[in-house]
Design brief:
Layout (H helix, E strand, L loop, with lengths): L1 H15 L6 E6 L10 H14 L4 E6 L6 H11 L4 E2 L6 H5 L4 E4 L4 H8 L4 E3 L7 H4 L10 H14 L5 H7 L4 H16 L7 H9 L1
Parallel strand pairs: 1-2, 1-4, 2-3, 4-5
Helix pairs in contact: 2-7, 9-10
Length: 207
Amino acid sequence: RAASDMRQKDQTRMKLGIADGRRIALLSLAYLTPSGETLEIRRKLLECVVGGLPAEYQLVVKPHPAENGGDIEKFVFRHAPKAVIADRFMPIDDILSISDVLFNRGNSQVVIDATQRGIPVVAVPAGRHTIFHELSMNNVIANEPRDISRALKSINESGMGIYDRLIKEHLAIDPGRACENTIRRIIEIAGSRNMADMGNRSIEIAL
């Protein structure tokens, strides 16, 4: 199994064109929508991460599978010319398996996936209120470029212990409570007056 996992990681690195041993910072993007992640928000995300990411990291940007591939590539290269853009259909699990840190707005399923794998997460909320705010995890929230290096330093010093509260609150729950929380959140989104468009509500629920 270990040999198979290593081969898969090598193949993923090769597909992305990243040399063995290079540290990888993954930025996962949500679906482009007027009520969620807009182009302006994406610009802020990219500029924050690129502006603060240490030189030893290779930035990999993973678009949402439903994105227009050509449009997203042009946009990312405009704001992050040295980034590697993963194929939008490449499984996120494959990229997580070779990543050293995940950057995300903070409320996506991929945050939980990364934490379960022992991959540190830095939230770049770009105006969004996240579970990181709710848990006062300010040391891994980045609102501007200088916060990136501070967050990475905290992670290097404390390891995954930083995420103990996140794991306790959002991972270590019984299936019944998880089901109740999911139903409650769906009802909140369905009744939101901020999303009059049914399509946008459906997208938010899916995310």
